[in-house]
Amino acid sequence: MLGTTTRSTLLAATLMASVAMPVMADKASGTLNVAFTKELENVDSYFNSSREGVVLQRAVWDGLIYRDPETNEYVGNLATSWEWIDDTTLEFKLREGVTFHNGEAFSADDVVYTVNFVANEENGAKTQRNVNWMKSAEKIDDYTVRIHLKDKFPAAIEFLSGPVSMYPDEYYAEAGPSGMGLKPVGTGPYKVVEVVPGQHFVLEANESYHDSPKGQPELARIDIRTIPDVNTQMAELFSGTLDLIWQVPADQANKLAQMDQFTVANESTMRVGYLQMDAAGRSGESPFTNKLVRQAVNHAINRQELVDALLQGSSKVVYTPCFPSQFGCVQDVTEYEYDPEKSKALLAEAGYPDGFSIDFYAYRDRQYAEAIASYLNAVGIETNFNMLQYSALRELNMKGEVPVSFQTWGSYSINDASAMVSQFFKHGALDSTRDDEVLEWLDVADSSTDPDTRLEYYTKALKKITEEAYWAPMFTYNTNYVFKTEVSYTPTADEVLRFVDMSWN
Amino acid sequence: MTDAADPLAREIRGPSPQQMLKSRALSHKGLIFGMSVVVLLVLVALLAPVLAPHDPYEQSLMTRMVPPVFMGGTWEHPLGTDHLGRDYLSRLIYGARVSLMIGAIAALISGVIGTAMGVAAGYFGGKVDAFVMFLINVRLAMPVVLVALAVVAILGGSLTVVICVLGLLLWDRFAVVMRASTLQISRRDYIAAAQVIGASTPRILLTEIMPNVVNNLIVIVTLEMAHAILLEAALSFLGLGVQPPTPSWGLMVSEGKNMMLFEPWLVLIPGVVLFVLVLAINLMGDGLRDVTAPEGRS
C-alpha cells in the first residue's frame, strides 16, 4: 500500500516537473536556446580565458577593428580608419554616434580608459598576451585616439580586431571587472539582460546597434545555459528545450546528422594537437633527450588513422607546431610517415631494444589520448597514463616534470605563427626543448615588421624544430555545431559562435 | 531437508555432520547460483588468454564501436568493439581478472588486519579492547569513498594503489564482527578449560576461538569482496582507479558513457556483468552463512 502511494506520488512529481519545464523555444517565441559545456568564470572578456568568453565578448562588445571571418579583411568597426604614425604608434578615427547599452556615448575617453586599464599589468587581465603589447592610449580629440605600443608588434591589428574590445569608461571605473561580469555593458549587437554567474545568460538584441560590419542582430533573444554533460545536451535538443549545441564530439554528431530535424555543420578550428617531449631533459633522466627516440615517437603514430577515425570532419594531419593557415607556418618541413617497424628500429638504435616505461600525461580528449598511448605501447614505449586537469598539468609542465604529454593549443584564433611557435620555443617555462638557435631565429621573426624577413626566419625555426623532432604534431581540431533546421547559420573557421549571423528560416 | 520424509531412516543411519552440511548446501538455491557464477568467473579470469578471441589491447580505429551480435554485429566481435576498436568480449574477460584480483586481495588484506584486531579486542578485553574500539571509531568516521578518492588522487591511480587503499580501508566490518563473536566465545567453558590446562594464548586463539568464528568471517569476506569490486569500479569510472589501457569494468562503463544515448550496449554489457558478479558473491556469502551458522540449522 505504502509502495503504491510512493510510486504515484513520484509519478505525479515527475509529471509536474515535465509540465513545469521552460516554454518550448522556437521561431514563434523568438528565443534561441543554447548550451555551453563549461562554466564561464567572468563575463568580463579580459578576465576569462575560455572559448565561451570569446563568444559572449563578440556578441556584447565591439573592437576598434573587425576582421571579416570569410575574407580575413580588416574593416573599421568602432574606428572608421587607422594609420601607423610610426612603428609603435597607431592613430584611429572613431565612429561617431555610437552609444553603449546603458546610454553612455562612445568617444575617445572610453578607448583611452579601456586601453590604459587593461594594459596595466597590476589590473590583472587574465590573458596578458592579448594586451601586454600595448603601452598606453592618448586622446587627440573627442573622436581621435592614439595607441602607443611597447615595442614593434606586427600582429597589433589582428589583436585589435580580436580580444581587445572597448568598455564604457564611466561605468567600468565604477563597476570594475566584477561589476562588469555581473551586469555587462558594451556597444555590441546583443545586450545582456540576465547573468547567473557561470550558469545562465540571457541576451537581447540591441535595437539601436550602429551600422557595424558585424551586421544587425536578427534573433530577438538568446538564452544560454551551462550544461556540462553532452548526453544531457542532446536529450534537451531532442525534447526541444535547446536549439543549438556546439563542440559536439564527432561520434555523436554523426548520429545526429542522420536525423532530419537537425543541421550538423562542421568547421575546422586553429587548435593543433601534439605530443610534447622533454627534449631538454628537465624531468631528469629522459629518453627523449635522444633525437632517435623522438623520431621513433613521430614514426609510431598513425596520424591519418586518428584523423579519419576519431577527429573526422575537417581535421587535417599536421607536421608543423602551428596551424597551416597562420602567417609563417610553412608546410615544407620534415614529415614522419607511420612506420612502427622503423620506429622500433630507431628505439633499438637509441639503446632501447625492449622499449621503456614512461609517465604519459593528458588533460583533454581522453579518447584521443588513449589512442595515442596505444600507438606508443605498440612500439614498446609503455605508458603510465595520467589524466589531469589543465591547470594541474600546466603547473607540472612549467616545473619541467612532464616527460611526455598530449597537448593542444588554439592560438587564441590568431592567424599568425607567433601565437603558437613563439609561445613554446622561446625558452619560457613551457618550453621543453630549449634550443638556442630556434630562440634566436624566432626573436628576429617576432620583432620584424618586414613580412619576408619574418617568413624566412619562421621557416628556419620550423625546419629545425621538425628536423630535430622536438614535438610530434599530429592533427588539427574541428568543431561540430548542431542546430534545429529552423535555425540558419554558417559557422566560421575561428571557433566563435556568432549570434549576430544567425536567423530563423 | 530432502529426506525429511523419512526421519526414522535418517536417525538409524545417522548422517555425519559433513553429510548434513552438504545436503543443506545443495538445497540452498542462492548458494548454488552464487557459487556457480563465482566459480565460472574465476575460471574465465584464470583462462583469459585461452578464452579471449582477440588481444584486449589491440586497437583498430577503423572498426570502432561495432555493435554486438545481438544488435546486428558479426561473430568476428561477438560483443562488439569499444571506442578504440578493441574487442569488447576480450576486454570483458580480462576485466574479470582485474575485478576478481582487486576484490580478493583487498578482502584478504583487510581480513587479516580486521580479524587480528577484532579477535585481540574480544579475547583480551580491557585496554586492548578500548584501543581497538578507538581505531574502529576513527576508521568509521572517515567515508571510504572520499578517503579512497583523495589518496588515489594524490598517489596516482594504478592497480597496486587501488588494491592497497581498499585493503587498508575495508577492515572495519571484520574488526567489529570478529570482536563481537570472540567476545561471546571467550566466556565459554571450553575456553576456560583450555586456559586451565595451561594452553598458550596463540594456541587458544588459533585452535579454540578461530574455528568457532570462521563462519562469520567467511560471510564478511564475501561482503567485503563485493564491496571492494564495486569501489574499484566506482574509482575507475571516475578516472581515479585502474588506468587505461588496462581493461576494468568500471573503466569500460566510464568510456562508454559518452555514447550512452546512441550505443547503450557499451555501458550495459560491463554494467550487467558487474551486477551479476556482485550479486553472485553476495548470494554466496548469504548462503554460506545460512548453511554454516548453528542458529541457521532449523
TrEMBL record, chain A:
Q: Which UniProt keywords apply?
A: Signal, Transport
**Is Ribonucleoprotein found in the keyword set?**
no
Pfam families assigned to the protein according to its UniProt record, in alphabetical order: SBP_bac_5 (PF00496)
Gene Ontology BP term (one): peptide transport
Signal peptide residues are: 1-25
InterPro entries per the UniProt record, alphabetical:
Peptide/Ni-bd (IPR030678), SBP_5 (IPR039424), SBP_5_dom (IPR000914)
Cite the GO molecular-function annotations of the record. peptide transmembrane transporter activity
Solute-binding protein family domain location: 73-426
Q: What is its main location?
A: periplasm
Location in or out of the cell: Periplasm
Q: Name one GO cellular component term.
A: outer membrane-bounded periplasmic space
User: Is the keyword Signal assigned to this protein?
Assistant: yes
Matching PANTHER family: OLIGOPEPTIDE-BINDING PROTEIN APPA, PERIPLASMIC BINDING COMPONENT OF ABC TRANSPORTER
Per the similarity annotation, which family is this? Belongs to the bacterial solute-binding protein 5 family.
Protein name according to UniProt: Peptide/nickel transport system substrate-binding protein
Organism name: Primorskyibacter sedentarius
From TrEMBL, chain B:
GO cellular component terms, alphabetically, are:
plasma membrane
Mode of membrane association: Multi-pass membrane protein
Keyword Metal-binding belongs to the record: no
Identify the Pfam families for this entry. Answer: BPD_transp_1 (PF00528), OppC_N (PF12911)
Keywords associated with the record? Cell membrane, Membrane, Peptide transport, Protein transport, Transmembrane, Transmembrane helix, Transport
Q: Where is it predominantly found?
A: membrane
GO annotation terms (biological process): peptide transport; protein transport; transmembrane transport
**Residues annotated as domain ABC transmembrane type-1:** 96-285
Keyword Manganese assigned to the entry: answer is no
Q: What residue intervals traverse the membrane?
A: 30-52, 98-124, 144-171, 213-242, 262-281
Location comes to: Cell membrane
Which PANTHER family does this chain map to?
D,D-DIPEPTIDE TRANSPORT SYSTEM PERMEASE PROTEIN DDPC-RELATED, OLIGOPEPTIDE TRANSPORT SYSTEM PERMEASE PROTEIN APPC
What's this protein's family per the entry? Belongs to the binding-protein-dependent transport system permease family.
Name-wise, this protein is Peptide/nickel transport system permease protein
